[in-house]
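Lecture notes, unit on protein representations.

Consider one protein chain, 537 amino acids long.
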Amino acid sequence: MKKNGSNSQNASAGASGEPAAGTGNQSVLTISNNLEQTLSDIKQELGSSPDLKIRKVKLGLAEPVWAAAVFIDGLVNSVAVDEFVVGALIENTAFAAEEMPREPQERLQLILGRALELGETSIKDNWNDMMLSLLSGNTIILLDGCSKAIEGGTKGGEWRTVAEPSSQIVIRGPKDSFVESIITNTALIRRRIKSPKLWVEFMKFGTVTNTDVALVYMTDRVDQKVLDQVKMRLEKIDIEAVLESSYIEQLIQDKVFTPFPTVFNTERPDVAAANLLEGRIVLIVDGTPFVLIMPTVLAQFLQSTDDYSLRFDIATLMRLVRYVSFIILLLGPSVFIALTTFHYEMVPTPMLISLLAQRENVPFPAAIEAIIMEAAFEILREAGIRMPRAVGQTVSVVGALILGTAVVEAGIITPVMVIVVALTGIASFAIPSYNLAVAGRIVRFGFMIAASMFGFYGITLGLIVLIAHVNSLQSFGTPYLAPFSPFSVRGQKDTVLRVPMFLVNLRPNKLGHMNDNDKSGKDKGTSDSGKDGQTGA
């Protein structure tokens, strides 16, 4: 695969290559035979940046030859540069006068083969490739009289250490999470899947940023048609900058105009590993701890890693709570609006009398009440997220209490409406996936409007439209509502319910296709869902 002028390389069992430069910053400069001229061109290309470091070294005794180690301070491993690059060039006995070759190319090969003590070295003969390697954290070694450069693998710098996930908390299970380093993230996956069948393809995206992206999959489990479709969509990406995985997600998703996410994301390595074992594809973007997983189904967003750490009966109960919470999130305010606006006969008489007494001095209809409170709740939620962590949660809780009490005492909102909106907000926090919770919050306003106009008839019409829309969605060829539509009996073992582990096959069906070990012909074309989207069988 080629993208933005870069060659992706397959890497089995941990091997990976360095792609070539992107097309957005192509330069007409070349690597000169004159060392000083090349160094001057590098300085000019980078604007004489203060973090550009150049270390000159004299090689040989009788006829000394000047060499230079060029690197970007902060992007390299300083110890590797000092000891294994500069130190190796100075101390290596191969550069004695009687052993130093006269031909520049032979000198280059001597340095490459006998002097450097690095695990990863290569020769660069293109200016753009050399500059990209320099800006990626490698050290460039230039030799006077030679028009080629040596790339030394010295990537390093400061990275956030592996810590506990911030958004996908579990009661029992691994506590590590992905970080912003793509090499660290691929290593976290390989620690869990020690198989040569785990393949990694590196590529670069962004004509300006040249962001590293890793495509990870199990070659013996992935659906080749899905893999080809993912690669085809990636090849079509033409963008200047990729600063987060959402940039790529928005460019490869199946449908743009839908609130429902069709690409799953996670910051947990165990979730990524589980999905790889099911035949899914993981996309890791350098600079972000959130990886993309594809294809996906709706049930995947309502499952948690805890479902596989706890007993099956407890896990099933928690899943049922999440499904009920999602229904409350979608329909809670709209059902209350329909009951209090159009369908009084469905409310018990004592409760109806209480509701009418509360509404006696309220100037707004139920629909306006609900919209005002929901908007206020969304503002408080957003404020709590954006404020400093130490005070954000406190402000949200205190603000909600004060605001709820004030609007009731002022006679603007009824107490029951405050309870309904609060229950809806709490239900949204029970959804494991933030993206699906946001989708539910958006769709909720549509149901509220339909209920205020037509009551339960409007809610019914909205449900028909919603189900038809969700049923039309696909994720890289996989039906979004699988295994509900198309219905799969085997898929129900690990969707809403979670059967005991001994009833679940260790190797599930491939997404959209039957597993090689399953020739029964049943449930073909469906997918089962499991650990945060893990398929069960």
